[in-house]
Amino acid sequence: MPLQSHYGKQGVMLVNLGTPDAPTPAAVNRYLGQFLTDPRVIDNLPGLAQQLLVRGIIAPVRSGIVNPFKAGGSTKLYQELWTENGSPLKYYGKVVTEKVAAALGEDYSVKLAMRYQSPSIEVALDELLAEQVSGILVFPLFPQYASATTGSVHQEVMRLLAKRQTIPPVQLVNSYYEQPELIQVFADNARDVGNLDQYDHIVFSYHGLPQRQLKKADDCNHCYVVDGCCNSISRVNQFCYSAQCHATTRAIATELNLDPDRYTTSFQSRLGFDDWAKPYTIDVLEEWAKERGAKKILCFSPAFVADCLETTIEIGVEYQEEFVKWGGERIDLVPSLNDDPRWVAALVSMIRSETREAVA
Ligand SMILES: C=CC1=C(C)c2cc3[nH]c(cc4nc(cc5[nH]c(cc1n2)c(C)c5CCC(=O)O)C(CCC(=O)O)=C4C)c(C)c3C=C
Ligand SMILES: [Fe+2]
Ligand SMILES: [Fe+2]
After folding, report:
1. Is residue 57 within 8 Å of 115, Cβ to Cβ?
2. ipTM beyond cut 0.90
């Protein structure tokens, strides 16, 4: 018998990053304003300076709200990404939540939340608590831990719970970067693409992080100090985002029997002028096209569980155009997990194993 209360359902909150409510300058401005004033995302500015810079310059300029007749860069990209179902990140989040809820059955109550914009963590938490759940499993939809993503979700959940008299049993999922269930789905999706020998090279492209944040999160003075610091994972770097990304790559590559010279781990979406985790995906693509004559590249995006701006547009359109200019033919994207039944089954399996004690 578990120690905790076992009355009511087990609550589950699936949490992703968030996306604008609409592809308009006003909505993109609201989204970027909330996202980029998070001190875990832009971590090197004092609070007031960050508010002024983000809300006064970065968000208005990127969204284009400063000029009502001309959408800014980010808004244009969101307009390109938008489908009849809206933003894919939110659409697939909703579909997956419904499917996971149906598969888990009556013992569970499953909600979707977004760290920024809607549906908010606050609303999802209130709904779960109003149902008198016996406990809550907070499951960020980020396979690898970063302070800017998972850490921020955890902090927000704790901030909201800290206001309440009763703090229910809460489990915070940290990461699942090499869980066999997850690795299997990425590998199966790649197998569905066809014979991998048709590709000159395979790129595993992860969202980047400023090197400063990797160092800050490193209590063991390991990252950028020890040679090949992220090439293996152990006690000293078990929570390092970059090391976890490399571990995800190795696990997928092992599953697909890929030799190490067939693939590269790289990082995308750099913002600002500081150095981010390297190598940058765009540099890897340039090198393969210009110096090694690569024509076809296969690209995995294992930091994302659904189509989003960074996969569909940044890699699928922007990097693709550059690659062709450099003499390449095409970059094929391994489809994201989206609402793939194998991904739903993987989530159900991970949730069940995390809550086995509570749902006895
Ligand atoms: C692994 C997941 C992610 C990490 C780590 C991450 C860090 C990070 N991101 C920014 C700045 C931006 N990210 C933007 C979009 C975006 N980021 C992620 C995931 C991670 N970000 C996703 C899934 C998305 C797309 C959301 C969607 O709606 O499709 C954007 C907005 C787009 C733009 O204006 O270019 C910004 C800005 C920083 C600064 C950062 C770490 C410090
Ligand atoms: Fe991002
Ligand atoms: Fe490292």
Report:
1. no
2. yes
